[in-house]
Write a structure and sequence with these properties.
Chain lengths: ~300, ~400
């Protein structure tokens, strides 16, 4: 007896079942489970896209809606000049410049020190290696607020007379570096530990010191790891709020980063909160990071595929 | 070009002693091989010559300089590694010129030297290749070019052929010998493969458990092994060993006796000794004329035949009770490995009579495992009489 199934899912020889389109779809997915998986994939994707992208879209709506106009999902009379207003009302470029300088210098400090630490943790055997590593990782889980008071006292010259870092880049680069360093140390330790010993030995026999081997062989071969650590540090600093807001008085000349810029945009309107300009400022602030992620992602992926170490 | 001298070099890792009081005096221009089983300390010894590891005790001299505490880059050495260790992010030219560039040589000088080194290893025209675009043999040639381009005093090679396939390995072996003739540099070579050690080196340093066992030319190690370890390690297949004891009239064991002149042998009758004989010095009675000084016949049963083409390895069982199978191994006391010419018509299960060549018998003292004698001779009639009289 033929077991061929019919288009309606019924069994051959029985009267055709009366089914709606959904029932027919269900019947067909039972035959072809792939279909159901694909449907679930689309549902999940749409859900995540909506929850992540919608706030961003709403930020755009907020920026483009003119003051005093009612908010709507699709603004009727978008006002693009708001992006220029951002630069008119405050020195927003200077705030962005400050943020970039802070992020880049922190990244440089972190990469340099974390490279040395990563070399030690990843490639040398010494007593107490694991406890030290755990200690460093533990520090990264401390709440930044715990460090704030002592650091504030220190940086405002109340501990060492004459040493005042408040309102200077140092007051932010120092805490940022120590807070974000453990993650980079962890990443670089893993990468440097995977470089075969023979390559380092070869470099040392050929004429480098251990440090030379690190910079000439180990770091170039760990480029994807260094890029990852660098990008993560950069983004963390760029997005940092706590110390960024508290270690300066919010003036662009005093190295206040974008946080300070956005907060001063809030105060830019005389008597009302200027959501539109703040939203526009936020969007502008996102651009450098968005570009960095897109560029770095390609580099990291290409590095991961091309940098496979063959011995 | 320099001599290398290791004086009482010891390396400890915690409680583990990797190398114990190593003394090596390597002459200028000599090709020597450090050979031994895995984990015997040969690589550690080489790393101490290279400066990648600092000795716990002792001194290392290269040329007239004490280099014990110098970093690798200042020792005038170059090295070829087991895993080849070309820098994957540099092309062939950059790999070869790495050391020269670090030492700030002129561009023209670098070009000239790289060209020259590349031509020695026959890699001209491949200077812009990346390491992952080359075969294993080509990569190894580049690694050798990188090592010779700086004209080092000493050339260290840590199992450079271990990762190559068998055919290429034999080919590279002759190339390395040619290279040694061409460069006339001191070469220290590490391998666990005794065949490599035998074929290439001027002298072999046999190392076991961190201690130097023997440091002699290959054939001396082969013919006059200093102790049981060297005897068993050098030569493939391995030497046969039978434990027994020395008697008035020769050697006696559970499975066979061999009579020889015991006068002049530095051991007393009754001492526990091990008799060693190489497979090629065991002869079936049909070829008894090939043995220069045949012993009494020994009865045995043919267990397994291994035809190699140019010779056949015959595993013999000495113990009559042995029923064969897993029990009989060539390393055991109750078996004997014999190599015979391929036109022999032995078949498995045959009962045969074999003789040993007295001139090729080695005796080892069981208490020290040191060699007592290499080769014994037939007891003369009068000596045998004297001994029998003594016994009475």
């Amino acid at each position: 007896m033929s077991r061929d199934t019919r288009t309606d899912g019924g069994v051959q020889g029985e009267p055709e079942l009366k089914r709606g389109p959904f029932q027919r779809w269900v019947a067909s997915t039972i035959k072809e489970p792939q279909k159901a998986y694909r449907a679930m994939f689309y549902v999940a994707t749409i859900f995540f896209l909506a929850t992540t992208l919608f706030p961003f879209y709403f930020l755009l709506v907020l920026a483009l809606t003119p003051e005093n106009a009612p908010l709507a999902l699709f603004p009727t009379a978008p006002r693009f000049e708001v992006f220029l207003d951002v630069f008119d009302r405050v020195n927003f470029l200077r705030y962005m410049f400050n943020s970039l300088v802070l992020a880049l210098s922190t990244t440089a400090v972190v990469l340099l020190l974390a490279s040395l630490a990563g070399y030690v943790f990843g490639r040398l055997q010494f007593p107490g290696r694991t406890p030290l590593m755990l200690l460093i990782l533990a520090i990264s889980y401390f709440p930044p607020a715990a460090f704030f008071l002592p650091l504030y006292q220190l940086f405002t010259g109340n501990v060492v007379p004459g040493l005042s870092l408040y309102n200077t880049p140092g007051s932010m680069i120092l805490p940022f570096s120590s807070l974000f360093m453990p993650l980079s140390i962890f990443i670089l330790t893993t990468f440097y530990g995977q470089i075969p010993d023979g390559l380092e030995d070869a470099a040392r026999v050929e004429g480098t010191t251990r440090l030379g081997a690190l910079f000439r062989v180990i770091i170039p071969l760990s480029a994807p790891g260094v890029a990852t650590a660098g990008v993560l540090t950069f983004i963390s600093v760029y997005n940092e709020f706590f110390f960024s807001q508290l270690m300066n008085n919010g003036q662009p000349a005093n190295w206040a980063p974008i946080v300070g810029g956005l907060l001063s945009l809030q105060r830019a309107g005389q008597f009302q909160v200027t959501y539109g300009v703040m939203a526009a400022g936020s969007i502008i602030a996102v651009v450098p990071v968005a570009i960095l992620v897109v560029v770095a992602q390609e580099r990291i992926v290409s590095g991961l595929t091309a940098g496979a170490l063959k011995e | 070009m320099a001599r290398v001298h290791l004086q009482d070099v010891t390396k400890r890792y915690g409680d583990v002693t990797a190398v114990e009081e190593m003394n090596l005096d390597i002459k200028d221009g000599e090709f020597i091989t450090l050979v031994g089983p895995s984990g015997c300390g040969k690589s550690t010894t080489m790393e101490m010559i290279a400066g990648l590891t600092t000795p716990s005790e002792g001194t290392v001299n290269i040329g007239e300089r004490d280099v014990t505490n110098l970093p690798p880059k200042d020792r005038g050495i170059s090295m070829v590694f087991q895993n080849i260790a070309l820098f994957p992010h540099m092309d062939v030219y950059d790999n070869i010129s790495f050391g020269l560039r670090l030492r700030n040589y002129e561009k023209e000088e670098i070009d000239r030297r790289v060209e020259n080194a590349a031509s020695i290893v026959q890699m001209e025209g491949m200077l812009d290749r990346m390491p992952d675009e080359m075969s294993g043999g080509q990569r190894q040639r580049v690694a050798i070019a990188r090592a010779i381009v700086r004209n080092p005093d000493v050339f260290l090679m840590d199992e450079p052929l271990a990762n190559l396939d068998a055919k290429l390995r034999v080919h590279m072996r002759t190339e390395l010998q040619r290279l040694h003739k061409e460069l006339d540099t001191t070469i220290v070579y590490v391998t666990h493969d005794q065949a490599e050690a035998m074929t290439m080196s001027d002298r072999i340093a046999v190392i076991n458990e961190g201690e130097l066992q023997q440091f002699d030319p290959p054939l001396v190690c082969y013919n006059e092994p200093r102790n049981e370890f060297v005897a068993g390690f050098i030569g493939s297949p391995s030497m046969n060993f039978t434990t027994g004891q020395l008697t008035q009239t020769g050697f006696s064991s559970e499975f066979y006796d061999v009579s020889f002149d015991t006068t002049g042998i530095d051991a007393k009758p009754g001492d526990a000794v091990t008799l060693g004989v190489r497979p090629e010095d065991v002869y079936p009675t049909e070829f008894i004329d090939d043995a220069s000084d045949p012993t009494e016949t020994i009865e045995a049963e043919v267990d397994v035949l291994e035809p190699m083409g140019d010779e056949i390895f015959v595993y013999l069982m000495l113990d009559e009770d042995n029923e064969g199978g897993m029990g009989g191994t060539a390393a055991g006391d109750d078996s004997l490995l014999m190599s015979v010419s391929p036109d022999s018509d032995l078949t498995e299960g045959d009962l045969v009579e074999v003789v040993l060549d007295r001139a090729k018998i080695h005796l080892f003292d069981d208490s020290t495992s040191l060699a007592i004698t290499h080769g014994v001779s037939r007891a003369s009639a009068s000596a045998a009489d004297a001994q029998s009289e003594e016994a009475e």
